[in-house]
């Protein structure tokens, strides 16, 4: 496709925003977010923790002890950097891979495991934890985000709604409708597209003629930015800016984070060797978010192997405890589930409730 | 009491609830200044402001998502699907999102959304404006499906729908919008969802129906009376869940029944009613329960509507078949 100069000009404006390069060097001093040493260390702690959690989750899945799981390794900076920029009361509308964000937002880990296992306890968000259940339908969370953000604005809460999808999600009609509604109503919403390059197996190049996903914001008349998704400082800074923009009444923002998922799409039989090369994997591993942030922290004398090992051990212990707790969740009964259908049971469900009570009592 | 058309009763119900409850929001395509393409929201924006009654961009899925998102932040959206044939564009938001909200969250969240939309044949609309899609909605656990047949019912049912804490699909038959007036109280009142109404008492046969077919059935009952057949007409009013008790009580009295729907025969509400009668009252029956429906084609082109739609004559014929069985 030969693109006109005008189109090329528009597309070229969406340059990748970066603060920390692959070597752990600050390349954009002016944009450096105002984070204390403790906060910087906390970012690293969470990334290390999440990497271990991902490894454990994969192994638990292989043992048949977890259920549905979508690996996150490679995407830690995108996930954790964006969540870290939020206020505790902000709303998250996650996709099914976005479990680290919701756990750091207050969903207990054992509950995340219950969600993986297909247990209703996984969706019972604790009071005050403003998180929707991870979305399965690609894009449905995006139109809902416009609604949640409108609700937050109407209630004058001073909070925003943030949602996550992937590069494939950016092809959905709901992606555009959600952004367009949020823009038309000027509500405080942030749309994060974690462009991990593959929608299951289909490469991002096949999703669209657009050179970037960020530029799709232009069609909705909202702000769009492409960020190095392996750079936690860049993701944090842009999310924070987007959050403030929304709250100041200056519209929603689309953030595209360039990232990579090292693992398969999910643990349900996906084999990445069918659609990508090991060279590509290697190339992306060089950009690893943990490696570069570790280098950065070490250069500031803020990180040590000892510290990291402690986090690894802590993560392992926590996961063990969380799985144990999840194992203790009550066995699901059909009668519980019938009870969750409506506020008041209609006659058909009342009858079916009685039928299943009888069955379950045997 | 005022004399109101069904559309006036619908507007009045929204007015009552906008007045009663700050969390009620009315929105959709052209519902603001224009008052809706059928004028269902006439005057509401002027009375309650653009903040509460507003136009949305032209995208049904976006409207559904907006309603769903608002509903979990404490609002009670009344969204209009401009013509119910456009529900496909937002079916996910209704059937896969709102309808599952309570279940997916183990009872933590709920989605009190009213999804209003005009439907129904006989007004010669373009394609995909008039289809009877209530069967599709009724197969969706978690949503109630309400279809009023009179202005009085329309107001009471819509107020109940808006106050319901779960999603309610509220379908407005276009042919009934302005076809007649009814005494409608100016004050608020509710009609319980899931309760049928016996629109005509009779002892020889039960005609179970809803929507515009209530009127065709009442006309058929008058015809049947000339032949000495005393038909009872039950208006379901809510097609999901259906009021089984009222149906069974009537069938046990008349021992004969037909089910009438404007929708196609396959699957659907009438099939469900027949199954419930079989399950619960088969030994009371003197004859098979027959159905009067449209044929199993897609909704027809405008010029063929009149022959495609079931008529009161079809109801008379089918009733006699059952009586003479």
List keywords for this structure.
heterodimer, A: 362 residues, alpha/beta, six-stranded parallel sheet, two-stranded antiparallel ribbon, 14 helices, 8 strands, globular, B: 325 residues, seven-stranded mixed sheet, five-stranded mixed sheet, 36% helix, 20% strand
Oligomer: heterodimer
- Low-confidence sequence ranges of chain B: none
Number of strands of chain A: 8
Strand order in the largest sheet of chain A = 1-7-8-4-3-2
For the terminal residues of chain A, how far apart are their CA atoms? Answer: 67 Å
Large-scale geometry of chain B: globular
Structural class of chain B: alpha/beta
Helix coverage percent of residues of chain A?
40-55%
- Global structural class of chain A: alpha/beta
Mean pLDDT of chain A: 97
Strand order of the largest sheet of chain B: 3-2-4-5-7-6-12
Mean pLDDT score of chain B: 97
Listing every helix as H and every strand as E from the N terminus to the C terminus, the arrangement of chain B reads EHEHEHEHHEHEHEEEEHEEHEHEHH
Largest interface: A-B, 42 and 41 residues
Helix content of chain B: 25-40%
* Strand composition percent of chain A: 5-15%
Strand residue percentage of chain B: 15-25%
Largest sheet of chain A: 6 strands, parallel
Tell me the number of strands of chain B.
Answer: 14
Ranges of chain A with pLDDT <50 over ≥5 residues?
A: none
